[in-house]
Amino acid sequence: MTTSTRGAAKVPAVLVLEDGRIFRGRAYGAVGETFGEAVFSTGMTGYQETLTDPSYHRQVVVMTAPHVGNTGVNDEDAESRRIWVSGYVVRDPARVPSNWRSRRTLDEELAAQGVVGISGVDTRALTRHLRERGAMRVGIFSGNALPDEGTMLAEVRQAPEMTGADLSAEVATKEAYVVPAQGEKKFTVAAVDLGIKGMTPYRMAERGIEVHVLPATATVDDVYAVNPDGVFFSNGPGDPATADHAVSVMRGVLERGTPLFGICFGNQILGRALGFGTYKLKYGHRGINQPVQDRTTGKVEVTAHNHGFAVDAPLDKVSDTPFGRAEVSHVCLNDNVVEGLQLLDKPAFSVQYHPEAAAGPHDAAYLFDRFVSLMEGQRA
């Protein structure tokens, strides 16, 4: 990626999809060129959390909400240390942000972090195209001396695909750190960082959990060195088919019978650990309005998602696995994609979505309480 940040608002920009479809607009954020997988997010709010979600590493995010940047950027809502999206696509950026916490405009923040974006694009047409054709590689090019269309398309087609991408170690912490419990400490959890969002350990800390966040390279011995009451596997980017190390560590946890909770990438890791396959969705689930049913209670919840891969597990039966019986606990009501797994003979479960809800509805917050209940039961 090459970038500049001067006078972006009046600079021409071009978005080129790998199937040859082209959209023209104006530079937004940094000026230059960038590549990634084109995906769309249906959230009408929470753009700052979206941009700083490590699960979006190497993806160009198209916002389906037409007006973006209304509340500017603050210093409190970032979910990680930086913006992770490789590019950003909006229709109508806010000219002036209005919010008491705003410290700078979204355009300024994108430019400061070198994120190449494009505005003035018909994002409705682009989203419909991705729904019909599927997520694909894309390039954004901006500047007063743009390459010709053939050159741009050739560069897009040379960019790496998301299938087969092993990205967790690129976004995870390099050094372990601790998020202390709020109030009385009740439990210790080892959280394997595969691209964790900041709100996740915070939600556990609210429940009296001291969270030891470990690098993606952590071993089983590293996990148990903190003497955990439970083990957590986080969200993260990339293809779960490449995550052999994380699968091996999770199997070690399952063998010991320690209470286990995984979300998003962690759900896919649990699926693989149990012997199920994973596959790439046509265009994925991304946004904060996805309907999911908890099949253990019948409750329907509106949930926050960010995933392009899913677990291939049977919806209509209990499966035998190396760690006992397992079943699909949650399912997406839009397309019947597996959204959660649970073991029936060991204290382990996972969901494909984001119960920390930053941003998003809080319908799924009970899952952290369910994790606490597992640890209480194990201790008893």
Short description:
With 380 residues, the chain is α/β, with parallel strands linked by helices. The protein is built from 10 helices and 21 strands.
Q: Tags for this entry?
A:
380 residues, seven-stranded mixed beta barrel
Descriptive notes:
With 380 residues, the protein is an alpha/beta fold. 22% of the residues lie in helices and 33% in strands. It has 10 helices and 21 strands. Strands 11, 12, 13, 14, 15, 16, 17, 18, 19, 20 and 21 form an 11-stranded mixed beta sheet that branches. A 7-stranded mixed beta barrel has the order 2-3-9-7-5-4-10. α1 links the parallel β4 (31-41) and β5 (59-63). The longest helix is centred in the C-terminal third of the chain and has 14 residues, at 366-379. The protein is globular, with a radius of gyration of 21 Å. 52% of the residues are buried. The mean pLDDT is 96.
Relative helix content = 10-25%
The number of helices is 10
pLDDT under 50 segments (min length 5)? none
Principal-axes shape call: globular
- Give average pLDDT, whole number: 96
The tally of strands reads 21
Give the distance, in angstroms, between the N- and C-terminal Cα atoms: 54 Å
Percent of residues in beta strands:
25-35%
Biggest beta-sheet profile: 11 strands, mixed
- Computed CA radius of gyration, to the nearest angstrom: 21 Å
Q: Helix/strand/pairing class, anyone?
A: alpha/beta
